[in-house]
Amino acid sequence: VTVNSSNPVDADFTDISVFTVSGNIKQFVAGDNCNVAGVKVDLIFNGQVVNQFDNLGITDENGNYAITVQSERTYTLEPKLEGRTFLPAGNTPTDRTFVADSDKLNMDFEDITKYSLQGFVLAGAGSAAGCEQFMGTATITLTDEENCFEITGTT
Predict the structure, then answer these.
(1) Which of 32, 108, 94, 114 lies closest to 63 in space, CA to CA?
(2) Does residue 97 contact residue 75 with C-beta atoms inside 8 Å?
(3) Which end of the chain has the smaller Cβ count within 10 Å, N or C?
(4) Cβ contacts of residue 45 below 8 Å, gap of 6+?
(5) How far, rounded to the nearest angstrom, does the alpha carbon of residue 82 sit from its chain's CA centroid?
(6) What is the mean pLDDT of the chain?
């Protein structure tokens, strides 16, 4: 658009800029970096989730997510998956708040959820071994559904 003083024009413009907020969510288990799929990453402005009706904020099988931001504002990111706890990582500020004035890459999170497993190794049905009798050793192997890690221990 060219405007000169001999031809004054009223011109209205609409900002159609869009920015992308993207990152990854991993869990570190037994020295392995495991991707966390199915995490909903909410984009929050003034206490309201602004991406609640799209699926763009859900991590894929590689733990990656991307959210389109259409307004230059200050937002907060909040990853959610039932029973899980997340901490900021990568370029994500510790308070999870940022100004969307350009693409924001590597807005990562770490899943710090820990589980505890307890139990007993008992003799099989019909065995003469009692609760106080040594039966030998048992090897226990734990793995996740995605086969990201395997932990083996011996009793």
Answers:
(1) 108
(2) yes
(3) N
(4) 71, 73, 74, 75, 76
(5) 12
(6) 82
CA of residue 46 relative to chain centroid, distance: 22
In 36-154, which ranges are E strands?
A: 40-45, 48-49, 64-69, 74-80, 86-90, 97-99, 107-111, 139-143, 150-154
Give the pair of three-digit tokens for residue 132.
């106080």
- Of 55, 106, 45, the residue nearest 77 (C-alpha): 45
Residue linked to tokens 């609760």 = 131
Q: Which two tokens stand for residue 108?
A: 């990562």
The residues, ordered by sequence, that sit 6+ positions from 76 with a Cβ below 8 Å of its Cβ are 43, 44, 45, 95, 96, 97, 98
Q: Summarize pLDDT for 24-40 with one digit per residue, the tens.
A: 999 987 777 889 999 99
- pLDDT category, 55, cuts 50, 70, 90? low
Residue/partner pairs of 117-123 with CB below 8 Å, 24 or more apart: 117/142, 121/155
Task: Estimate to the nearest angstrom the gap between the alpha carbon of 154 and the chain centroid.
Answer: 32
Coil/strand/helix, residue 130 = coil
Give the span between the Cα atoms of 113 and 28, in whole angstroms: 10
pLDDT over threshold 70, residue 8: no
Residue 7, C-beta contacts closer than 8 angstroms, at least 6 positions apart:
none
